[in-house]
């Protein structure tokens, strides 16, 4: 991430030479990222045409690759060109790759350009990549033309297909005039006969900065006295390699390194790579030599070196600021080359959409959108509603994924990236780095929350209407409204999950706070235990991320990783994760008599213990035991496996099992319809074995014909992150009851009745150890959570002590959502492609609720997002609103689809065969029964463990106790 202000300085420094596509570096960056994605698709089409694995998008075949070359600058290097590593007499090791330019591996006699890639190694942290091609100008003026040309001829091996690409597809993409120029340039370049790669001249075509000397183009030309090539056998597809091998076996191959200096924009343009810098205007000045020493290219050592070079990713931006690439094509190269090399090396993936899906998507999507104006998707027959959800998700993926990270724009020079730590190819990192191997920081701890909707930052409405008034009139639990299709384990589960997914860091209490004025007549508030009565509510502010350009302070980093990695159990950093493990580096998690070990403040030692209560303790304890059970099974099955490998494999297994439980059990439980049950099971294991379902997906979204774990990672239109809108729809605090009955599971005897305050914070562990895990699960399994609706916010959370402050969590929810720029409810639903409301009556059918809404809000457009989500009448069977569900349907798939450990690396080689079997055969019931087998007869039949359990009728003294 670029530091604030650096990009602006960079822009000012190079404004003299460069003009940005779209008018700004940021606008241009977005163009380049799109073009980079298009080039990865070119690689796929070329792979089909060329056979074999993925190759470079260009310069796929390298007849020559040498590691032991040397670059030496002249002793009489002109003073004006003495910049950085370019010093008189300086000599450096270099790696050289000489190639054919086509993206399809083909015989050396095919008409083609040739290329040279050179990596000059100056020191451990400094190198410079020089890239050049055997024609002085590019066929393309800029990156858009370059990619259009690549797409036009992608996968074209036959003359007929190439002609169709050049004379039909290319003019349609760029226009007739540019297409004619590009074809003319290519013909001139490929008409040249090549006898030896050692006798070719290679031009950079694009300019680079040469320190204070300004822009230059460089070229590599055969050194004077280079011997000519013998007449080659052009029928030999490897004749260029054979010639170079024979030449290098006899003598060194030497190229003269020259630069051409910038004169003016007319004769030596920086932005237009299709204009030649003619030597009559700017002579080629020799500055050094590149020597490939005499050697045997057929030796084992040389062949191994060639293989290593094939795995290198050359990029002109692997340099220093003094030698920064210039011009549109060069600026595009950073994103394009990084994407292409990551794709080629298996670090980034491309999921192709079949042509039939692309052709049918537009008319069918339009027809469904028209149908939804009259009939909501959830009122359609099951098959049609499933199809509707497929197309709704397509729309949401296209329009409702917004990247918020501060990206570098314009591109910046950088060192060659270090190698990926080998262990992180098969295990999750502690902080979420290297999940996406092509962008190691994606989704890691500290990464910014993204957006599903454009932020609406309105400081003038932070306190309008007063959030305390909103809470008291619309959220306060007047009487408990139960959700009778669920149990309290379901309520604890979502908090257990949210603690893995999202956590906004807060300033320390008293350092920086938000103040909410109390409305007249509401009475005083005590902000700290034993503190004075005040006329404001005060609580700690979130720590925001700085942004350049004076943007509003609505960007926040996630203190958890964004990935589904079990961090609530394992911790979000290495120190915590290792501390939680068994002493001596054991694979298991520390437990005391089957319970979490106690911490210094009374809350247990676990990955995340904020807002702790007995329901959370139950699930943390259960899955800590599950981790240790997986460890024991792995030890028994694979005796040679180290404790370190066992620990990380068990973490993979438990995290995937949690993801599966949430996908196919918790979500269908809270969204209790046949459509959702089928949709979520399809997400994990593919569609039901029905010819109609499979035909529908084959026609409209073939990608869903298997479960997501059998697909490739796909971030769709933005790098992966969880979003502020996602955080908003998961504000599900009404699920928590205010009081609980703890019961014994064998005879149904009531142990005690407790309030939420009696089982939260430091006292929670005492309660669960006294009650026992089996009894706690039973007690929560037979109890209903609250319904997610207005007038049902837990009273115990409206005066809640946390970190030395007393907060009303309902007010905090409202304030946080407003201050983070989440749009108000009507804009929120409209942004998710639902019809805007024109009146309060359209929001709720309850006359009393409508009256209260009118008392609190001046218009329906002012209704808070959280309030609107709770007020909305949900579809039949749904535990929350259809508007919230739209964020869910987008992000629920995304949490699986983006994660390589739940897609391409969800396989026996990474998880072990035992681990995959554990996840596939496991579920919430199996986890509970593994650790509490005595509960077998109490779990619901034919339903998940989140549905109400069978209640044991009290007998004997237990029954008398209940009546007392």
TrEMBL record:
Gene3D superfamilies: Catalase core domain, Haem peroxidase domain superfamily, animal type. InterPro entries: A_dioxygenase (IPR034815), Catalase_sf (IPR020835), Haem_peroxidase_animal (IPR019791), Haem_peroxidase_sf (IPR010255), Haem_peroxidase_sf_animal (IPR037120), Oxylipin_biosynth_metab (IPR050783). Keywords: Dioxygenase, Fatty acid biosynthesis, Fatty acid metabolism, Heme, Iron, Lipid biosynthesis, Lipid metabolism, Metal-binding, Oxidoreductase, Oxylipin biosynthesis, Peroxidase, Plant defense. Coiled coil: none annotated. It holds the Pfam family An_peroxidase. GO terms for molecular function: catalase activity; heme binding; metal ion binding; oxidoreductase activity, acting on single donors with incorporation of molecular oxygen, incorporation of two atoms of oxygen. Its cofactor is Ca(2+). Its EC number is 1.11.1.6. It is an enzyme of class 1 (oxidoreductase). This is Catalase. Residues 1-22 are annotated as: Disordered. One of its GO terms (biological process) is fatty acid biosynthetic process.
């Amino acid at each position: 991430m670029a530091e604030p202000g650096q990009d602006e300085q960079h822009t000012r420094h190079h404004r003299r030479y460069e003009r940005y596509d779209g008018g700004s570096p940021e606008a241009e960056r977005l163009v380049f990222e799109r073009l980079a994605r298009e080039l990865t698709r070119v690689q796929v089409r070329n792979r089909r045409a060329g056979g074999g694995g993925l190759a470079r998008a260009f310069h796929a075949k390298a007849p020559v690759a040498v590691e032991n070359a040397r670059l030496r600058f002249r002793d009489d290097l002109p003073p004006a060109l003495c910049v950085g590593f370019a010093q008189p007499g300086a000599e450096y090791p270099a790696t050289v790759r000489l190639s054919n330019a086509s993206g399809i591996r083909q015989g050396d006699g095919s008409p083609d350009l040739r290329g040279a890639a050179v990596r000059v190694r100056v020191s451990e942290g400094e190198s410079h990549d020089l890239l050049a091609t055997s024609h002085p100008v590019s066929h393309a003026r800029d990156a858009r033309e370059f990619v259009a040309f690549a797409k036009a001829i992608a996968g074209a091996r036959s003359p007929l297909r190439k002609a169709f690409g050049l004379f039909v597809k290319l003019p349609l993409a760029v226009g007739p005039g540019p297409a004619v120029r590009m074809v003319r340039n290519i013909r001139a370049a490929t008409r040249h006969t090549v006898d030896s790669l050692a006798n070719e001249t290679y031009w950079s075509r694009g300019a680079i900065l040469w320190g204070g000397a300004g822009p230059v183009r460089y070229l590599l030309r055969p050194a004077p006295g280079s011997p000519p090539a013998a007449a080659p056998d052009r029928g030999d597809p490897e004749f260029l390699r054979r010639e170079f091998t024979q030449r290098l076996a006899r003598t060194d191959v030497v190229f003269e390194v020259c630069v051409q200096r910038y004169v003016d924009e007319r004769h030596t343009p920086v932005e237009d790579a299709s204009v030649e810098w003619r030597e009559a205007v700017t002579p080629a000045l020799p500055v050094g030599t590149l020597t490939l020493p005499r050697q045997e290219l057929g030796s084992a050592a040389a062949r191994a070196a060639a293989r290593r070079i094939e795995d290198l990713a050359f990029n002109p931006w692997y340099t220093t600021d003094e030698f920064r690439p210039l011009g549109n094509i060069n600026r595009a190269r950073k994103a394009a080359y990084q994407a292409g090399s990551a794709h080629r090396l298996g670090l980034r993936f491309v999921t192709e959409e079949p042509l039939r899906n692309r052709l049918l998507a537009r008319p069918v999507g339009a027809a469904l959108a028209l149908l939804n104006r009259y009939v909501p998707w959830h009122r359609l027959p099951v098959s049609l509603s499933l199809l509707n959800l497929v197309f709704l998700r397509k729309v949401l993926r296209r329009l409702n994924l917004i990247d918020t990270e501060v990206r570098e724009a314009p591109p910046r020079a950088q060192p060659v990236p270090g190698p990926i730590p080998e262990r992180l190819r098969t295990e999750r990192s502690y902080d979420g780095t290297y999940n996406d191997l092509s962008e190691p920081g994606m989704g890691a701890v500290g990464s910014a929350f993204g957006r599903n909707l454009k932020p609406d930052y309105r400081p003038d409405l932070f306190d309008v209407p007063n959030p305390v008034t909103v809470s008291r009139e619309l959220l306060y639990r007047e009487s408990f409204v139960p959700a009778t299709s669920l149990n309290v384990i379901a309520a604890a589960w979502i908090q257990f999950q949210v603690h893995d997914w999202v956590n906004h860091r807060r300033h320390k209490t008293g350092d920086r706070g938000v103040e909410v004025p109390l409305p007249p007549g509401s009475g005083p508030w005590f902000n700290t235990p034993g503190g004075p009565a005040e006329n404001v509510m005060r609580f700690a502010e979130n720590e925001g991320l700085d942004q350049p350009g004076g943007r509003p302070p609505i960007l926040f980093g996630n203190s958890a990783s964004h990935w589904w990695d079990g961090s609530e159990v394992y911790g979000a950093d290495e120190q915590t994760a290792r501390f939680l493990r068994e002493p001596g580096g054991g694979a298991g998690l520390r437990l005391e008599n089957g319970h979490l070990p106690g911490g210094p403040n009374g809350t247990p030692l676990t990955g995340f213990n904020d807002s702790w209560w007995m329901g959370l303790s139950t699930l943390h304890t259960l899955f800590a035991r599950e981790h240790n059970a997986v460890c024991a099974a792995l030890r028994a099955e694979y005796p040679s496996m180290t404790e370190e490998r066992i620990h990380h494999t068990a973490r993979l297994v438990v995290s995937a099992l949690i993801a599966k439980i949430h996908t196919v059990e918790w979500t269908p439980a809270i969204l209790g319809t046949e459509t959702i049950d089928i949709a979520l099971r399809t997400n994990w294991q593919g569609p039901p074995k029905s010819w109609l379902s499979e035909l529908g997906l084959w026609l409209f979204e073939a990608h869903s014909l298997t479960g997501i774990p059998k697909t490739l990672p796909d971030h769709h239109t933005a790098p992966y992150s969880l979003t502020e809108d996602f955080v908003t729809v998961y504000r599900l605090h009404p699920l928590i009851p205010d009081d609980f009955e703890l019961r014994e599971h064998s005879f149904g005897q009531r142990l005690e009745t407790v309030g939420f305050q009696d089982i939260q914070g430091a006292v929670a562990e005492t309660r669960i150890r006294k009650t026992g895990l089996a009894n706690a699960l039973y007690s929560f399994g037979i109890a209903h959570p609250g319904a997610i609706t207005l007038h049902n916010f837990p009273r115990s959370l409206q005066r809640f002590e946390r970190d030395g402050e007393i907060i009303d969590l309902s007010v905090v929810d409202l304030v946080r959502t407003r201050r983070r720029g989440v749009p108000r409810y009507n804009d929120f639903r409209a942004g998710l492609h639902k019809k805007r409301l024109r009146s309060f009556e359209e929001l709720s059918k309850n006359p009393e609720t409508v009256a209260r809404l009118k008392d609190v809000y001046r218009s329906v457009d002012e209704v808070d997002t959280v309030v609107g989500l709770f007020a909305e009448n949900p579809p039949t069977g749904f535990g929350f609103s259809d508007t919230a569900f739209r964020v869910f349907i987008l992000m629920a798939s995304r949490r699986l689809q983006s994660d390589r450990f739940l897609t391409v690396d969800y396989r026996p080689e990474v998880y072990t065969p035992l681990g995959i079997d554990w996840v596939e055969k496991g579920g919430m019931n199996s986890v509970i029964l593994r650790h509490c087998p005595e509960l077998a007869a109490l779990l619901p039949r034919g339903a998940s463990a989140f549905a109400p359990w069978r209640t044991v009728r009290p007998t004997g003294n237990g029954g008398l106790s209940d009546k007392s």
